[in-house]
Write a structure and sequence with these properties.
3 helices, binds zinc ion
């Protein structure tokens, strides 16, 4: 069973008027889907492109929970932009619960960090390395 999950969002393309559904990642298990690291890092993971005309529709405002077993903390939660205080807690708890259910016996409750979206990329760069780092930027090793 996949631990990663998407949420459906119904979209009308502002360019061509096409109605379609976008599936946004809300939970990503990086062990399962390491190929998603680059788009999390450059913040295109929630960018929606029209499936008919191919034009960019824009950035969807969606929370994202990242599970990365073996790293500390294993769970990173990045709230949607417009959420505050209790919204963040609620949305984090909801996604945590989904993840816990899909992990079953392999779930270990060992912490969650709430990370604003811009910092998410930096954390993954530190953890997973980045071949696109420009020279002069510090490069840390785990
Ligand atoms: Zn379109």
């Amino acid at each position: 069973m996949s631990h990663s999950q998407t949420a459906r969002m119904d979209i009308r393309c502002p360019h061509c008027g096409y109605d379609f559904s976008a599936y946004l990642w809300v939970i990503i298990d990086l062990d399962e889907s390491p190929e998603l690291v680059p788009s999390i890092r450059n913040d295109t993971i929630h960018y929606i492109t029209c499936s008919r005309c191919g034009d960019g529709v824009g950035q969807a405002d969606s929370p994202l929970l990242i599970y990365r077993p073996g790293y500390r903390p294993p769970v990173l939660f990045s709230p949607s932009w417009d959420s505050t205080g209790d919204d963040i807690k609620e949305s984090a708890a909801f996604l945590m619960n989904q993840l816990r259910q899909s992990l079953g016996a392999s779930w270990q409750d060992s912490g969650i960090a709430v990370v604003p979206r811009p910092s998410l990329g930096e954390i993954l760069t530190v953890d997973f390395g980045d071949t696109t780092l420009k020279s002069g930027e510090p490069r840390r090793t785990p």
